[in-house]
Task: structure prediction
Amino acid sequence: MRYRRYLPMVLLALAGCQTGVSPEEMASVNYGARPARWQEEIRSYMGIRVPDAATLKLDFKNEPQQMVQKETAVRERQWGWATCVEVDENHPRGYKGRYPMTFWFRDDKIVAVNGGPDDSNIIGAKYAREQCEKLGFLFKP
Result:
């Protein structure tokens, strides 16, 4: 049973094995139409997940872009229109400091999220930072 203490390190290593997505994979999925009300959807999603929505600050870093997330041992494959948001809860009971999140849309609905209140773990944060960088935003805490 000594191997159990190495399990978290193995999972983290596997999480880092997200390799690039081939052009064939990008072309193999149906992204649907670009989301029209994506900012409102994100505000609504976050508004019910933070202690005080009135103090919530969302900085939308890019317009939604077509993107594919490879399936790994710790994440399902995702595709759709992805966007990066920098979040500042600015509330004593909320998360301290700013953090990035990526939101995935298909058919005008959020289908996946990396980082943030529902995914507040080291893997979710790592995916959010990496995907924000791919979308053109380098997060600096």
Summary: The chain has one domain: 2-134. The two ends are 38 Å apart (CA to CA). Helices lie at 7-15, 23-27, 38-47, 122-134.
